[in-house]
Amino acid sequence: MKAGELRPLFTPEEIQRRVREIAADVDALYGDEPLVVVCVLKGGFMFFSDLVRHLRGRQVEVDFVRLSSYGQGTSSSGHIAFTKDVEISLQDKHVLVVEDLVDSGLSMQFLLSTLAQRGAKSLRLAILLDKHERRRVEVRADFIGFHLQGGFIVGYGIDCAERYRNLPGIYELVAE
Questions:
Q1: What is the rounded distance in angstroms from the CA atom of residue 151 to the CA atom of residue 112?
Q2: Which of 89, 100, 118, 140 could share a disulfide with 44, CB 3.0–4.6 Å?
Q3: Do 141 and 102 form a contact (C-beta atoms < 8 A)?
């Protein structure tokens, strides 16, 4: 996609308010139970970082995974590669996966299925953006920041060909 107009969707203040609300919901669910929070790189890193900072649980471990399905394009290739795996055991632990957005659901179905085989006590999903109308497979998110109808989204960690991740808000990138 060529660079084009950036249409604001969510301000940094709206994002931070919603992240605090999600953190409170996560805290209410898990309390002081040990929790492993897994960030899906690269797009989820800002949401993950802010969310983890707001969690009040004392037994929080963090880890990272990386999936590849988009490459340099704007739509899924349909092929999902697990390019970085978690490094800590998930056996008998509560696990919260944190992702930037879910649209087709293919990547999340693959990741959740893979992690479910690791013996976690529970496995839940927190997503910043839900583009449910693009689902090709059903994926249930337990914590959702915002619902979107469509558009190509950038900012707050989300990229287009590795650009725009640094924007503090979330924007729709409209091609010229």
A1: 25
A2: 100
A3: yes
Average pLDDT, integer, range 80-89? 88
- H helices, E strands: number in the chain: 3, 9
The runs of H, that is alpha helices, within 31-92 are 45-54
pLDDT digits (tens, 9 = 90+) for 52-78: 999 997 899 999 999 887 544 555 556
Neighbours of 51 (CB within 10 A): 23
**Global confidence as pTM:** 0.90
DSSP state of 133: G
Helix (H, G, I), strand (E, B) or coil at 26: helix
Give Dmax (Cα) for the chain: 50
Is residue 103 part of the annotated active site? The answer reads: yes
Neighbours of 29 (CB within 10 A): 16
- Give every CB contact of residue 92 below 8 A, 6+ residues apart in sequence: 119, 120, 121
- The total number of residues shown for the chain amounts to 176
φ, ψ of residue 61 to 5 degrees: the values are: -110, 150
Q: Which residue has the tokens 């649980």?
A: 57
